[in-house]
Design goal:
Blueprint: H1 3-6, H2 12-85, H3 93-102, E1 107-111, E2 117-120, H4 135-142, E3 146-148, E4 152-153, E5 160-167, E6 173-179, H5 181-188, H6 192-199, E7 205-212, E8 217-220, H7 233-241, E9 245-251, E10 254-265, E11 268-278, H8 280-323, H9 333-345, E12 352-359, H10 362-369, H11 371-385, E13 393-399, E14 402-408, H12 413-425, E15 431-433, E16 436-438, E17 442-448, H13 456-468, E18 477-480, H14 483-504, E19 511-520, E20 525-537, E21 541-543, H15 545-554, H16 558-578, E22 585-590, H17 592-596, H18 600-610, E23 618-623, H19 624-629, H20 631-643, E24 647-653, E25 670-673, H21 675-683, H22 691-700, E26 704-708, H23 713-721, E27 726-728, H24 738-754
Parallel strand pairs: 17-18, 20-22, 22-23, 23-24, 24-25, 25-26, 26-27
Antiparallel strand pairs: 1-2, 1-6, 3-5, 4-5, 5-6, 7-8, 7-11, 9-10, 10-11, 12-14, 12-17, 13-14, 15-16, 19-20, 19-27, 20-21
The chain binds ligand C2E and magnesium ion (2 copies).
Protein name: Diguanylate cyclase (GGDEF) domain-containing protein
GO molecular function: cyclic-guanylate-specific phosphodiesterase activity
Transmembrane segments: 12-30
């Protein structure tokens, strides 16, 4: 897994397990529900089958019972008829009454050939005449001798009767009737509808329907369906296949489960019994299963969520620590490396650039006001930088006082430069902190991913290199990385290695000191020398001290190199002493970093002691810019040095923009006027020069004035005229080796004795 993917703690890591659990639960729940539904359907089918069985056998029993009863009635009617037939005079009403009572027939009517009742048991209907369409009329016209009717409703009494008729030769006939209301009532219980109604009393049955084989509703517990056609597909199929069919459907706006069972007996298809089950119970049960499932899912989810949440919090903290800067909250260097690498290898953006922003005076602020103050400044810087974050711009805290901006999909170099200027402009106004407003000196380097094979490491390295190429005196400068810088870096590495060798090996000849004489104008005598460091790297040639001193400063070698310079100066002074020049002073250039080191004074005094040099033989040259960069601190340090009897010379005076009046407060002894003001003597007329003013101001504050870089007689004359104390420059001598310096002194001495 790519580190970059987890920097923003991907929610997928939580969503995926949750989705899996949710899916599993859903599948199991679905399976449970389906199993339960299937089980319930099977049960309902089973019950429907049992109901149908009961219904079928009841139907058959009912029809059997009806047949038997009807047969018995018929038999009885036949016996009565035969008894009547045995009568000699069938019109004898007494006899008929007797037969009626003996055989317990309810009605006996004697009709004349015209169909009028001439005798009736208990004389009830005497005079009634059969009319057209009446069953009696139908028998009369049929010509049959004997007929037994099916049970029917009597047209006069509205009661049910089973009638039989016996015809006499003269056309008169006798009607015998048995009252069948009780039998009918009994038989009624065995009708399709009644049986259906009884069965429909079962729990959860919404409706029962009997459908005839010609697809008509013969009976239904919901009466409104009786007589309706029932041509639904399911019924057609059930009839055709003779198999049970089930279906979920809606009946009277209620959801039902319908089981269609064929009603068959002895191979004969009577129709279909459709059982409509209510689904309310099964729905409730399914809801119960779902509720249980959801409950289980919730419990498991809450547990899982708690575990994951704690894991998430821990991970977030780890990620925060690993990929974010605690102080500013910005993504850190590790994140930057990953982010860049991701863009360079997998990114879709064609152009990727890296900007590195550095605060020049941050170290000094840190040292002067403390780390808490420095931290406040860094936080403010981060806040300001947030103004430029955007879709294709991401800000990082690289390290210390350096910030990085990764820019993607930009147009060209000009756009990058504009953005760089925008970044720098954020710091053009002083930053406000709890301790007041603070001016920051910023610089910015830019590296483009021109070479498609670039790695994040290389881009960061190049950005740092481009940054180091900026002259620190130049404020708000932008430097684009160029390949030449890399060669420069290699050269610097080489120089660094040589310097390290020289520091370790005291006698390494690649490093030496040159000594440039200084002449006192009042006595016209050599007063001393300035020690100037020299480095001659094999295969490269002589390196300017300006270059190798700054390399030594950047790579933290300056302190050890400075001590080496003191040793060599000590040796030179010893040599001069041996040759009788014990009054000579030698000035040594000291870097600000050396000076501010805690152990500087003690180390320096030790060297003086070991070389048996008295402090007044040495002068320290501190450049004006070093003093001004951190005035209070450096000036205090200079005071301590001065107290030890060591002279201090302010080098390159006039280039650091310190006011002349400030000279009064500086803990110095000598003002070394920069070559710039000496060169001006040749270029301008005397009235336009301020060189004399510097000399007189130095004198005013009790300081000695030294002119450096004196090359011409004109300059000498001017300096003599305005009482400059000491001169140094090619006019007198170029810097000399230790040996040459002694020869120079000897020659001077010789010349003097010659005069
Ligand atoms: P600086 O201390 O101002 O040294 C004077 C520079 O001016 C020397 O250059 C010297 O060779 C040069 N110079 C002297 N007279 C003339 C002249 O008449 N005409 C011209 N054109 N130049 C003249 P150098 O030796 O290249 O040193 C340059 C700077 O390097 C020094 O400026 C000093 O700041 C630094 N430096 C040299 N040696 C050391 C050292 O041992 N320690 C430290 N910290 N810095 C050093
Ligand atoms: Mg100097
Ligand atoms: Mg100088």
């Amino acid at each position: 897994m790519k580190k970059s993917r987890i920097k923003n703690l991907d929610l997928r890591y939580f969503a995926i397990p949750f989705s899996i659990i949710f899916a599993l639960f859903s599948v199991f729940m679905y399976r449970d529900v389906m199993q339960r539904v299937e089980g319930m359907n099977e049960e309902l089918e089973h019950y429907a089958l049992a109901i149908t069985d009961r219904y079928t056998s009841s139907l058959l029993n009912a029809s059997d019972a009806q047949e038997i009863i009807e047969q018995l009635l018929e038999d009885k009617l036949q016996i009565v008829s035969e008894a009547i037939l045995l009568l000699e005079d069938r019109k004898d009403s007494d006899k008929l009454t007797e037969i009626g009572e003996r055989f317990q027939v309810d009605e006996i009517h004697l009709y004349d050939p015209s169909g009028e009742i001439i005798y009736s048991k208990e004389n009830k209907y005497v005079g009634w005449k059969a009319y057209e369409g009446h069953p009696v009329d139908a028998f009369m016209k049929s010509g049959e001798k004997y007929l037994v009717e099916d049970i029917r409703k009597d047209s006069e009494s509205e009661n049910y009767y089973k009638y039989a008729y016996i015809r006499d030769a003269d056309g008169s006939f006798i009607q015998i009737g048995i009252h069948t209301d009780k039998i009918r009532y009994f038989l009624d219980r065995f009708t399709m509808q009644r049986m259906l109604d009884q069965l429909a009393d079962y729990d959860y049955i919404h409706n029962l329907m009997f459908i005839s084989s010609d697809l008509k509703v013969e009976a239904s517990s919901l009466k409104e369906y009786i007589g309706r056609p029932a041509a639904e597909n399911q019924f057609v199929k059930t009839l055709a296949t003779g198999e049970i069919h089930t279906e979920r459907t809606v009946l009277k706006n209620q959801e039902v489960f319908r089981v269609s069972v064929p009603v068959k007996r002895n191979g004969y298809n009577y129709g279909i019994l459709a059982v409509y089950w209510e689904t309310a119970q099964s729905s409730a049960e399914i809801r119960g299963i779902i509720f249980q499932g959801v409950l289980k899912f919730t419990v498991v989810s809450v547990m899982l969520f708690s575990i994951m949440y704690y894991g998430y919090r821990k991970n977030r903290r780890n990620i925060q620590l690993a990929f974010y800067d605690e102080l500013t909250g910005l993504p850190n260097q590790t994140y930057l490396e990953d982010h860049l690498e991701e863009l360079l290898t997998h990114g879709k953006q064609k152009k990727v650039a890296l900007m590195m922003l550095n605060c020049n005076n941050f170290k000094v602020l840190n040292m002067t006001y403390g780390y808490r103050y420095g931290n406040d400044i860094l936080k403010e810087m981060a806040k300001k930088l947030e103004a430029i974050t955007g879709k294709n711009r991401k800000i990082f805290r690289f390290d210390g006082d350096r910030f990085a901006v990764v820019v993607g999909d930009y147009k060209d170099k000009d756009q990058l430069r504009e953005l760089g200027e925008e970044v720098l402009s954020l710091f053009k106004h002083p930053i406000s902190t709890a301790a007041g407003s603070q001016f920051l000196s910023m610089e910015l380097s830019i590296v483009e991913n021109k070479n498609q094979k670039n790695t994040s490491d290389k881009m960061i390295q190049d950005a740092a290199l481009a940054l180091s190429s900026i002259n620190h005196n130049e404020q708000f400068a932008i430097s684009f990385y160029e390949e030449a810088m890399e060669d420069q870096l290699k050269r610097q590495d080489r120089i660094e290695k040589v310097l390290r060798g020289c520091i370790l090996n005291f006698d390494d000849e690649q490093f030496s000191l040159a000594f440039q004489p200084k002449v006192n104008l009042a006595t016209n005598e050599v007063e001393g020398f300035e020690a100037l460091a020299r480095l001659n790297v094999e295969g490269v040639g002589p390196i300017s001290p300006l270059e190798f001193i700054s390399i030594a400063e950047e790579r933290h070698l300056i302190y050890d190199l400075g001590n080496l310079i003191f040793w060599r100066t000590g040796q030179f002074l010893e040599k001069l002493k041996e040759r009788g020049y014990e009054d000579m002073t030698v000035s040594v250039n000291v870097s600000g970093i050396q000076l501010l080191r805690e152990t500087f004074l003690t180390d320096f005094q030790n060297i003086l002691k070991i070389c048996s040099i008295s402090p007044e033989r040495l002068e320290l040259e501190i450049t004006e810019s070093v003093l001004l960069s951190n005035y209070e601190l450096v000036n205090r340090k200079l005071e301590q040095i001065k107290e030890k009897g060591i002279l201090i010379s302010l080098d390159d005076f006039g280039t650091g923009f310190s006011s002349l009046s400030r000279l009064r407060d500086m803990n110095i002894d000598i003002v070394k006027i920069d070559k710039y003001f000496i060169d001006k003597i040749v270029e301008h007329s005397e009235d336009k020069l301020i060189t004399a003013d510097i000399i007189s101001m130095a004198h005013k504050f009790g300081l000695q004035a030294v002119a450096e870089g004196v090359e011409e007689k004109l300059q000498m004359d001017y300096l003599i005229k305005y009482h400059c104390d000491v001169v140094q420059g090619y006019y007198i001598s170029k810097p000399l080796s230790a040996k040459e310096a002694v020869v120079f002194l000897d020659e001077k001495k010789q010349n003097k004795t010659d005069q």
